[in-house]
Amino acid sequence: MKLYSIYILNKAGGLIYQNNLDPSLNRLTANDYLVLAGTLHGVHAIAAKLTPTIVGKDSTSTTSGTDPTANNALLLSTGKVQNSNTNKTGLGSIETDLFNLYVFQSLTGIKFILITSPNPILQKQHEQASETFRHLYVLYSDYVMKDPFYSLDMPIKSQLFDLKVGELAALV
Amino acid sequence: MSNDNIILPSAASLSTLSIADNPKSGFGYNPSLGPLSNTITPESSNILLNRKTLSLTPTSGNSIYDKNVNNKKINEINLSSLSFLFCEAVNWTHRNSKGIQDLETRLNGLGYQVGQRFLELIKLREGVKSSKREIKIIDILRFIHGTFWKSIFGKTANELEKSQDASNEYMIIDNVPLVSKFISIPKDYGNLNCSAFMAGIIEGALDSSSFHANVTAHSAPIDGVPLRTVFLIKFDEQLVIRESLRFN
Amino acid sequence: MTSYYFSIIGTRDNPVYEFEFSSFKNSLAMSTSTSVPGKSQFSASIKEMLPFISNSSLDIIEDAQWTTNLFYLGKIDSFYGLLVNAFITQGNIKFVLCYDVSNGTTQKYDDSSIKQFFIEANDLYVKCLLNPFYSVNDAIVSPDFDLRLKLIAKKYL
Question: Which InterPro entries did the record assign (chain C) (predicted)?
């Protein structure tokens, strides 16, 4: 799996961070990135509404964590961070022949979006994506949340965060 | 005789205690009264001889004076909580400051008090019997670079260097200063360095050991070490003269 | 019985804490007498001189400060039968103890117990310094500090 690009959206759907990790990608204008982010945010929310009955049915079965409120209660009681696989409150992933897109939403509504190269072995790809999200989330909470010069929901300009994301991409 | 216009030589500070505040329990020093305030009375003498426990203040039952601060075991605290606390400290300082220079000065001032306190505590932990007072410039610098740094930041500083240009300047270099580990300075903040707080700690420790110095923090990134910080220690000129008179 | 005057002197030569007392040793045997055990027996004329005697030794302390790297400086001064012992911390806080030996005393002059007293007083001082509401050179007004100091005075002197 190769990382093409990383997006971070705030809870209102505003783009607060975008990094093209593959230099061969064509750069879009800043406005286009914003539109793209807004669209993804909308699609994510719509996806949650598309299958309300399935969510309802699943919550009656023994597998816990499918109902959003139960999921939240479980998270609060166990303290386990949700990974991209259990995040069923919206769009989780898009898989195409050209690229794969993964979405991970934190408890506070921050969305991390990964765009990666497609991988024939899908199962492995999911694991890799959730592992990358975990690292990314740690970097975000360390280098963004603990920076006194960052204000919540504003664009991330931290050079250290940039640097660490670069290191992370090199590892994947 | 009026109570409030007598100034005794032992009234050292602007304490809120006035000459009328004679402690009723017989314990507690009052600088306005001097040794008269805590002199041994028949009651306090009786308490001392019979070792009665008594509650003098609301916190007497759980007083720091009954705790052992001398244990060598290092009590570590969570880096995240420290970072969030420091983050808020910087934010608070930033709100009150008038500019970048002012912000650095204020952070330095916050650290200063920490340095003063830690110096005595670390010397106490070293053991007053076995350890020595540092009386030479190079010894106090080694102490700060080594033991002192390790006690506060959990590791020794990376380098200790003497300036090539000035005889009264030294540098302590830390590759990853603990407090600013997660902090990136925005471009419009110039060469602000939040490790000014750590510079303040060093300055506090040096000043209270009578090595008066100015300590400033400067970013000096090299490849692969973006947070490398140089703490420039500039001693008073008189200090170098004192040293040469004493030890040459 | 030996009477003592203990003072803590700050970095600006300002008194931070003072305490007058006398040895508690043998005081129980004499408890039949009217005097209070531990109460200092300095005469009134000496009493008012005590802060001056301690402060006049500061020059000697300052000299010794840069010639030895010990914390305990030992006996550094004497003034008409009053002896002065001193201790200095890394943070430049001086502990000074004046005591009379001429006062018909039978108690042996014991340097090591004075040293031990200073070491424990230093321990108390550092704990006091850990209080965020106390800053260097403030007077120590805490009754708890006073009580602990009196207890170690009783224990060692």
Answer: Longin-like_dom_sf (IPR011012), Sedlin (IPR006722)
> Residues near C116 by Cβ (< 8 Å), separated by ≥ 6?
C156
- Residue position matching structure tokens 């420290």: B82
Instruction: Give chain B's mean pLDDT.
Output: 85
The number of C-alpha atoms within 13 Å of B189 and in the hemisphere containing its C-beta is 20
Q: Return the ∠ at Cα B173 (arms to B172 and B176), rounded to 5°.
A: 135
> Would you state the CATH architecture of domain B79-247?
2-Layer Sandwich (3.30)
| Sequence-ordered list of residues with C-beta below 8 angstroms from that of B115, at least 6 positions apart, any chain | B200, B201, B202, B203, B204, B205, B206, B207, B208
Q: How far is B33 from chain C (nearest CA, A)?
A: 10
* Region B106-120 average pLDDT: 93
**Is the CB of C30 inside 8 Å of chain B's CB atoms?**
no
- Judge residue B187's burial from the number of C-beta atoms within 10 Å of its C-beta, 0-12 exposed, 13-18 middle, 19 or more buried: exposed
- Counting residues of chain C whose pLDDT is more than 90, the rounded percentage is 31
Q: Which domains does chain C have, with CATH numbers?
A: 3-156 (3.30.450.70)
Residue, of B133 and B22, whose pLDDT is higher:
B133
Range of A31's domain? 3-133
**ipTM rounded to 2 decimals:** 0.86
Q: What is the CATH number of the domain that holds A92?
A: 3.30.450
Under 8 Å between Cβ of B151 and B125: yes
Total domain count, chain A = 1
With touching defined as 3+ CB pairs under 8 A, do chains C and A touch?
no
For A102-129, write each residue's pLDDT tens digit: 998 888 888 999 998 887 777 788 888 8
